Amino acid sequence: MRYSEFRDLVDDVLGPVGPTLVRDQVLGPLGERTAQEALDDGVEPRAVWRALCDAMDVPEALRWGHDRPRRARD
Q1: pTM over 0.70
Q2: Per-residue model confidence as pLDDT tens digits over 6-36
Q3: Most buried of 20, 32, 36, 48 (most Cβ within 10 A)?
Q4: Looking at the 3D structure of the chain, how many domains does it have?
């Protein structure tokens, strides 16, 4: 996953509050860092996305966006 895809998914799946969550939501699986801190520290965007989705209880069917195929991605 590229950083641009991460940002697109944040906007599509989490909506207007998404950027705030990326900046402010501390995520235990990311070492008690925010998503932005983890990205800045070099954590793969896919791992950050999964942790953010888990924390926000995003259903699997919606994790890849509203207009994207509903299949699981690694």
Answers
A1: yes
A2: 999 999 999 999 999 999 999 999 999 999 9
A3: 48
A4: 1
